[in-house]
Design brief:
167 residues, 77% helix
Length: 167
């Protein structure tokens, strides 16, 4: 099926005819062509207006609006997804930092417990030696030999006794 050629109003207005000796009045022909072109233009506009009122056109229009809205929503969701992925990566990095800090704290705590256990083990023999009245003069007890028992309990040392002779 061959599509028929549609005239455009401008084609009607600009149409020129050849001249003959006893032909039509060119001014009348030109005026008539302008009138026909204007009427034709009005008809084309009316056909387009009627087409826009058809259910098919309205459906097409609704489908186009829905398609544009879906594209907007899809774009927004893609941007949100990218932002969430960025936040996820930042959180994962923060978790790794916290795990590293936790490991460091665990290692420090283990060393502190080890040191405290060692100190307690060193103090135990000295404490049991004091209870029996034995003094070896080594370890932590050797550092407090210059203090009498009451001075050690009160926190006053040998240096205070020597420096404060007036009391």
């Amino acid at each position: 099926m061959k599509k028929e050629k549609r005239l455009k109003p401008q084609e009607i207005r600009s149409k020129e005819f050849s001249k003959k000796l006893f032909g039509y009045d060119p001014d009348e022909v030109e005026a008539f062509l302008i009138e026909v072109a204007n009427a034709y233009q009005d008809l084309l506009k009316e056909v387009e207006d009627l087409r826009r009122e058809t259910p098919e056109y309205k459906t097409e229009e609704l489908v186009e609006k829905a398609r544009k809205r879906i594209e907007e929503i899809l774009q927004k969701k893609m941007e949100e997804k990218e932002e969430l992925e960025k936040q996820k990566k930042e959180i994962e990095i923060e978790i790794e930092k916290l795990k590293l800090a936790q490991k460091k704290m665990f290692d420090r705590l283990r060393l502190a417990i080890f040191d405290m256990t060692r100190i307690i083990e060193e103090i135990k023999p000295n404490a049991s030696g004091k209870e029996k009245g034995k003094s070896t003069g080594t370890g932590s007890e050797g550092a407090t030999q210059g203090f009498s028992q009451p001075d050690r309990e009160s926190g006053r040392g040998e240096t205070e006794d020597k420096g404060d002779s007036t009391t």
